[in-house]
Amino acid sequence: MNKPLNTILKPISYPPKILIAWKEAISGNKKIREWLTNNGYQELGLFCFALNNDKKAKNWLFENGYAHLLALINGSEGDELALQWLLKGDFVILYHMAKAADSYDESMNWLLKKDKLYAAISLQMEIVKDRIDDKNNDPHKINP
Questions:
Q1: End-to-end CA distance of the chain
Q2: Tens of pLDDT along 112-136?
Q3: Which residue range(s) make up the domain with 70?
């Protein structure tokens, strides 16, 4: 989020079945991730790679009108600028998803009241992030 935002943000409104598929793709279901990518939801498929720190996927999200999805990832990693940007852009659900994925109970409770599907997606994001952190912090791994 260091670059100025010169792109038009694309809408991110999805039917429940697509949100469920996104959650499954985040969890590592490659078939569903590929289906999303090849059936009009490329941003959600690439989100999964970006969540796992793939720089090309992060750049694609930013350059193709999905900076708000990138801010969701960055916010879930504690990036305060990304979180404030989400709030300023009126992406309140994404803000709370990011905070919930970063283990903030207040935001998880907010999501549970607002929409349990977004809460489930945030929980899946948190699981992925925790797995990455565990792998990177494991003293038994060489060059994690």
A1: 25
A2: 999 999 999 999 999 999 887 766 6
A3: 16-133
